[in-house]
Amino acid sequence: MKWTAVGVTALLAGIPGLAYANDTMAELAAGGLTFVSTDDVSMQSEDLYISPKQVRVDYVFHNGGDHDRTTVVAFPMPDIEGSGDFIVSVPNPDSDNFMNFSVAIDDKPVNPEIDRHAFAVDVDVTQELKDHGIPLLPFGETTSKALAALPKDLLADWIERGIVIPMDYDDGSGWKTDYVPVWKLKTTYWWRTTFPAGRDLRVAHRYTPSVGATAGLNFIGVDENAPFSGEEFDREKQRYCFDDDFVKTVAKRLADAKTQDSYLQESWISYVLTTGANWGGTIGHFHLTVDKGDTDTLVSFCGSGVKKTGPTTFELTADDFYPERNIDIALVRRPTD
User: Fold this and answer.
1) Digit-coded pLDDT (tens) for 172-209
2) Which residue has the higher pLDDT, 206 or 311?
3) Structural domain includes residue 20
4) The total number of structural domains that make up the chain
5) Does the residue 169 lie in any domain?
6) CA-based angle 79:325:27, to the nearest 5?
7) Which residues of 3-21 are buried (b: 16+ CB within 10 A; e: fewer)?
8) How far apart are CA 273 and CA 295, in angstroms?
């Protein structure tokens, strides 16, 4: 089975942490487990649950070879790059484990190793940041305070090398300068796993998703007579598979919002599914659940054979599934405050 462009219209609300006024919060696209491709170990099943609060993935792997296979299994976190232009939604910005990742094998917790490297203009600056007490994550209050405490001559050197950029502003008490990180952080969790010959192995992992958000709707065009048109609308329509019902419902919500002197808010969740192709063959049985959590926001995502299975859930099942595209979920809702 393969993905097809089928839009799903649903109601979704109660998403925490999205009460932004004017800024855009970009999402991070995390995903599943990876390792060196092999024909011996296949993914018998993947049960994937996505909600704004948690992503849960339960796998069953099978080693069809005639000997045990020990290998490194990795969970690559999405790259995080600092910027003076936008903010990235980081669930736990002051922690090394910034997406609250955990893993278990046959119900036994595993303590993974962590590999983290920071790059500025493709130069590894990991050790230099550590030597000066700077957290590697380029977002968060701890990082900002640590940069502000650095000597001015060091900051000048880091500006020249593309590690930070100066941002000048007037908060009403005079001009001030913040030093904004622009390095890129690459993070991977990894551990060694033995896949016993001839039997199944259950692997489960959990993390808190990065939920992007913006006030207003990115895909609405500037032409009031044809708001659902233009390059950005076409791009999001293709990425999230907007169907006619979704567009009509958004149009009605927009009209209602205007009469109430309110607006609509857009947010996104992304999941990297294509890493499942690293395992031997197709995914034997794939099950996806998107849990809305509430009943008052619109959601659209691509999938074939999606069914509404409860007041807050939509599900998709497929056998011999080949993950040819990632999962991107668009959410439209009224602001809660």
Assistant:
1) 888 888 899 999 998 888 888 899 999 999 999 999 98
2) 206
3) yes
4) 1
5) no
6) 35
7) beeebbbbebbbbeebebe
8) 26
